[in-house]
Structures are given as structure tokens and as C-alpha cells.
């Protein structure tokens, strides 16, 4: 008996040497666990993320200042342009993620999009240094930039936007792919990956809004553009050097086609009676699964289940057209996407609050006293450092203190489930808007008392609390959204999962612009607009109170939607019925 046990353990040990999650190594072969993936590969990926985020935040956080100072745009026009650019930047990943998952693969997509990103940075540099592309002549006062500079500048930042569209979803999902969910240790590492990924993101953010913004303010914008370009080239080389250590997922074609097949098959069988036993639904035999994971049957959206009814029980299901017969796994993947829609919608108001940090919050900083002694003046965008600090602190506390404690209390491997984490972070967005409204009211009162000095009697550190609180919220909600969308989408849509998370911020940016336009129109009709030509003639405090009220109402909507959500459940062998519960993602092993 002992000999049998030794042989079984030996076979299991030999099996665990290799990674069986449908990934391959750089030679296209089964990956060896000890030499590929895990943190040894993820660190190369995190390195390029840090440098890319340095460039992105160095541009994004100062964009409203560039548009108002160099382009001489009005505040509301500049804020609208920043929101449009942010919206495109965070919606483009839907296209980039689709291409990565369907055709090019994540590694190749990262390389291609990095080249597009680099082209944008080079063009941005040229728009500052080439005499024919400069914003103005060096001869005198400039009140309006050249048209050619505007065209080249916007072309450059939108090239960066398109580059981000492929880079961001592919790189983050590629990093998460380095951890095997069926291996206990690597699964736990993967739960920490998104936390530390965002710490690396914050490192790039801090450098972008301190060192880079200081160079923009005290040397010129072009010098910062040169730094962006050099760092991007260097990080791309580092990323390529990590190639032998990566685990790759082979693209399997459009993930949208199987979903359309489920809809067609379920509609064509809509009149068939619903089976009394879920085991009657069709699933592909394990011998033909090619290491792919099966999903459990669930009792929601039952009308889609009819797509998996095998009409002629004597015939082989694998020989039938996928437009007539879908597997249980394909049906459940369709359910996952449908169930995500209410979650996606109910997180947009949080994104609208986040969108204010890169526009009105930064512009507020320009009106406050930024001196901290010895003539040193803090660049307005550098206050973003406080937000990054809040995010790092909240992520560290959550990962190292809260999760271990909550695991013992709740018996949940994550501590609390993902949606609870997201909802908790939403409380901070409400608090941010309330604090921002109170600070802005105090600033306006200072202007009323002394119109000459205005709000220069107030320190820029009055803005620190609102940045710190939204940073705490980001550590819970934004990191939670990344993990949620990556984890809950079908395995073939992991890049699109990250794109769904980014699209929350993108949609929120567009809606923020629309909200500004609507509020501006309505308040102008009733008297004085909340958005004047500058901050002193605006009433941003009222706008912040409006956002606080919207976020509070939305939190109740999110709690309702989250309470009815069913998490993705995976089984290892054959199809089984999975009853609904409130647990997080689970792997259900069925005995045969």
C-alpha cells in the first residue's frame, strides 16, 4: 500500500513540474514550471508597466495645464478635451484587447502597440523642438499657438492613446497569465499580483508627477518628452529580454463568435422543453478539451441553457454545427458577460469622480500657494503624489494585514469577495467629493475676502485630503475592478477583461464631459453658470456636491446588483450542476 502511495505521489510530482493551463513557452512547447512564469517573468512585465505609466501620467496630469497655458484654451474647453482624450485612451483597449485575444496574442500586441506609443512620443518631442512645429515664434508674446502645432500635438497624444489601447490590456493580462490558477501557490501569488502591479503603477505615477512635472515647469515640456522617449525605448528592450521566461497563450480566434452561436442556438431551440436533469446538457468530452477548463451549469438565465440541449441523443454532439449546439461551458461564458453588464454600469459614477482628479483638482492647485520654503514651488500636478501614496498604503494594508485576518474570519481565500472590495472603495469616492466641495467653498471665500491675493493665502496642501482619500478608494475599487474583470471573463477573453475595466474609466470620462456640458447649460439658463472662464468665477463646490449625491445613490444600486451576482465556478472533469452561493470564484472537482 505504501509503495502505491509513493508511486502516486511521484506521478503527481512529475505532473506538477509542467504547466497544464493551455499556455506554452517561447518555443511553443509545454512550459516547465521552474523556469517559466511566476514572479520571475512578471517582474519583466511590471518593469515596462512602471516606465509606461511614468510617461502616461507625466502627460495626462499636466495636459490640462498645457492646454490652458500653451494652447490658451478656456478651462471648460480644456477640461472637455482632457476628458475626450482620457475617454479614447481608456476605451481603445476594447479594440486592442479583442485583437490580442483573437489574433495577435498578448506578447505580440504589446510589442506592436509599444512601437505606436513610441511614435507618438517622438512626434510629441518634435512638436516642441522643430522650429516649423513649435507652438509660437521666439520673437514675442504668443496668445494663440500655430495651427500646425495644434494638429501635430493632438496627433501625437492620440497616437499615444492608440498605443495604450493595445499596450494596457495586453500587458496586464499577460502578466496575470504567468500564474497557474490550478497550482495552489501560484494562485495565491496571482491574488497579490494585481495589488503589486498597482504599486508599480503608482511608482510610475509618483515619478511622473514629481520629477517629470518639475522638468516641465522649470525647464520645458520638450525636455520631459525626451525623457519619456528614452525610458520607453529602454523598457521595451527589458521586456524583450524576458521572452524566454514568459508563458504564452495561443489566440483561438474571435471570442465573440461562440457567444453569437449560443444566442442563435438558444433562439432556434426556444420551444423545446427544459430538461429536468442538468446532466442532460451537452459538454465536450475531456479527451477533446485540450486542457481547457469547464464551467459549471448555473440556474440563472435559463433561456440560454437550451443552446446545450442535444436534440438527437444518439448522435455525436461534436459532429453537430456549433450554431445548432453549444456546450455548457460556452453557455455559461455567455451568462458571465451578461451578468457583468450591471456591475460595469454601476461602477461608472466612481469613474466620474476619479476623472475630476486630472482636470479640476489639478487646476485648483494652480490657484493656491505652492511655495514650501527657500523659493521652491511645487508643480500643481505633483499633488497627485498624495493620491499614489494613498493607493500604495491601502493596497499594502489590504494585502498584508486585512486579507490574512479576513481569511481566518470568513474562510474565503481572498478574505472578502471582489465585489465587497469594490463597494468598500466607493465609500471613499463619496468622501472625496464631500471634502473637495468643502475645500473649494473655503477657497472661494478666501477670494471674496481678498480679491487681490485671492486663494494664494491657502496652501496647496489643502487639496491633499481629497487626493489621499481618492487614492484609498483607488486601492480598493480600481484594483478590485482589474481583478474582477480579469477573473470573471471567459478564459479566452482575458485581455478584453482588462479592457472592460479600463472602459469604465473611459466611459466615465466621456460622461463627465457630457455632465459638465449639461450642468453648464442648465445653470446658465437659471442664472450664473457653475463653470466660468476661470475657477474664481465658477462654482465647482456645487458640482462636487452633485457628484457626491450621485455616488451615494449609485452605491445603493451597486449593493443591490452585487448581492444578486453569481461568481464564475470552474470544474475540472465533467459537467455538474453548480448551485448559486455568495462565494468567490471556485474550482469544483467532480468525481468520476
Write a short abstract of this structure.
It holds the Pfam family PTR2. By secondary structure, the chain is mainly alpha-helical.
Notable characteristics:
mainly alpha, tripeptide transmembrane transporter activity, disordered C terminus, Growth Hormone, Chain: A, 592 residues, two-stranded antiparallel ribbon, PTR2_symporter_CS, globular, three-stranded mixed sheet, 3 domains
- Biggest sheet statistics: 3 strands, mixed
CATH class of the largest domain: Mainly Alpha
End-to-end C-alpha gap:
22 Å
Query: How big is the Rg?
Result: 26 Å
Mind telling me which CATH architecture of the largest domain this is? Up-down Bundle
Subcellular location: Membrane
Protein name: Major facilitator superfamily (MFS) profile domain-containing protein
Transmembrane segments: 84-103, 110-131, 196-215, 221-241, 336-358, 378-398, 418-439, 459-486, 498-523, 543-562
Family: Belongs to the major facilitator superfamily. Proton-dependent oligopeptide transporter (POT/PTR) (TC 2.A.17) family.
Textual characterization of the structure:
This is Major facilitator superfamily (MFS) profile domain-containing protein. Its main location: membrane. The chain crosses the membrane at residues 84-103, 110-131, 196-215, 221-241, 336-358, 378-398, 418-439, 459-486, 498-523, 543-562. The protein contains 18 helices and 5 strands. The protein has 592 residues and is mostly helical. It folds into 3 domains: 18-253, Up-down Bundle (Growth Hormone, Chain: A); 255-331, no CATH class; 332-573, MFS general substrate transporter like domains (Growth Hormone, Chain: A, Up-down Bundle). Helix 6 (106-129) packs antiparallel against helix 9, helix 8 (184-218) packs antiparallel against helix 9 (221-241) and helix 16 (464-488) packs across helix 17 (494-525).
Amino acid at each position: 500500500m505504501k509503495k502505491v502511495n509513493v508511486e502516486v505521489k511521484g506521478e503527481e510530482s512529475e505532473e506538477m513540474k509542467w504547466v497544464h493551463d493551455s499556455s506554452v513557452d517561447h518555443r511553443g512547447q509545454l512550459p516547465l514550471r521552474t523556469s517559466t512564469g511566476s514572479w520571475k517573468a512578471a517582474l519583466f512585465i511590471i518593469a515596462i508597466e512602471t516606465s509606461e505609466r511614468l510617461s502616461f501620467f507625466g502627460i495626462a496630469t499636466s495636459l490640462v495645464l498645457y492646454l490652458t497655458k500653451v494652447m490658451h484654451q478656456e478651462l471648460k474647453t480644456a477640461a472637455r478635451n482632457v476628458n475626450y482624450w482620457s475617454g479614447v485612451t481608456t476605451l481603445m483597449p476594447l479594440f486592442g484587447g479583442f485583437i490580442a485575444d483573437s489574433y495577435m496574442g498578448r506578447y505580440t500586441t504589446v510589442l506592436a502597440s509599444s512601437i505606436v506609443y513610441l511614435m507618438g512620443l517622438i512626434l510629441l518631442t518634435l512638436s516642441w523642438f522643430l522650429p516649423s512645429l513649435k507652438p509660437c515664434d521666439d520673437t514675442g508674446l504668443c496668445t494663440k499657438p500655430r495651427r500646425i502645432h495644434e494638429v501635430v500635438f493632438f496627433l501625437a497624444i492620440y497616437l499615444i492613446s492608440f498605443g495604450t489601447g493595445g499596450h494596457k490590456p495586453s500587458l496586464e493580462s499577460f502578466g496575470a497569465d504567468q500564474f497557474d490558477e490550478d497550482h495552489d501557490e501560484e494562485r495565491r501569488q496571482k491574488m497579490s499580483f494585481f495589488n503589486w502591479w498597482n504599486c508599480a503603477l503608482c511608482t510610475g505615477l509618483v515619478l511622473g508627477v514629481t520629477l517629470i512635472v518639475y522638468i516641465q515647469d522649470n525647464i520645458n515640456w520638450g525636455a520631459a518628452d525626451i525623457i519619456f522617449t528614452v525610458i520607453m525605448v529602454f523598457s521595451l528592450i527589458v521586456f524583450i529580454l524576458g521572452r524566454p521566461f514568459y508563458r504564452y497563450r495561443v489566440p483561438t480566434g474571435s471570442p465573440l463568435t461562440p457567444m453569437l452561436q449560443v444566442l442563435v442556438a438558444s433562439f432556434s431551440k426556444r420551444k423545446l422543453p427544459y430538461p429536468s436533469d442538468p446532466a442532460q446538457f451537452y459538454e465536450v468530452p475531456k479527451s477533446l478539451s485540450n486542457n481547457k477548463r469547464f464551467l459549471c451549469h448555473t440556474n440563472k438565465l435559463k433561456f440560454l441553457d437550451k443552446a446545450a440541449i442535444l436534440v438527437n441523443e444518439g448522435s455525436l454532439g461534436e459532429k453537430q454545427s456549433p450554431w445548432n449546439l453549444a456546450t455548457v461551458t460556452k453557455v455559461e461564458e455567455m451568462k458571465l458577460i451578461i451578468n457583468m453588464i450591471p456591475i460595469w454600469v454601476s461602477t461608472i459614477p466612481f469613474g466620474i469622480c476619479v476623472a475630476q482628479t486630472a482636470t479640476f483638482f489639478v487646476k485648483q492647485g494652480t490657484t493656491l500657494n505652492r511655495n514650501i520654503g527657500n523659493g521652491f514651488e511645487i508643480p500643481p500636478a505633483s499633488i497627485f503624489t498624495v493620491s499614489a501614496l494613498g493607493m500604495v498604503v491601502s493596497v499594502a494594508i489590504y494585502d498584508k494585514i486585512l486579507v490574512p485576518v479576513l481569511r481566518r474570519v470568513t474562510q474565503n481565500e481572498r478574505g472578502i469577495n471582489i465585489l465587497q472590495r469594490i463597494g468598500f472603495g466607493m465609500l471613499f469616492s463619496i468622501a472625496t467629493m464631500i471634502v473637495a466641495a468643502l475645500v473649494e467653498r473655503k477657497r472661494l471665500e478666501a477670494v471674496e475676502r481678498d480679491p487681490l491675493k485671492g486663494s494664494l493665502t491657502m496652501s496647496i496642501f489643502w487639496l491633499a485630503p481629497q487626493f489621499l482619500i481618492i487614492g484609498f478608494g483607488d486601492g480598493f475599487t480600481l484594483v478590485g475592478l482589474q481583478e474582477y474583470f480579469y477573473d470573471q471573463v471567459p478564459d479566452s477573453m482575458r485581455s478584453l477583461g482588462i479592457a472592460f475595466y479600463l472602459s469604465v474609466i473611459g466611459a466615465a470620462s466621456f460622461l463627465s464631459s457630457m455632465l459638465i456640458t449639461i450642468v453648464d447649460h442648465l445653470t446658465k439658463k437659471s442664472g450664473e453658470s457653475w463653470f466660468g472662464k476661470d475657477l474664481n468665477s465658477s462654482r465647482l463646490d456645487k458640482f462636487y456636491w452633485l457628484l457626491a449625491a450621485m455616488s451615494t445613490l449609485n452605491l445603493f444600486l451597486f449593493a443591490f446588483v452585487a448581492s444578486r451576482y453569481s461568481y464564475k465556478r470552474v470544474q475540472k472533469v465533467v459537467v455538474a450542476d453548480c448551485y448559486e452561493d455568495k462565494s468567490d470564484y471556485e474550482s469544483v472537482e467532480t468525481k468520476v
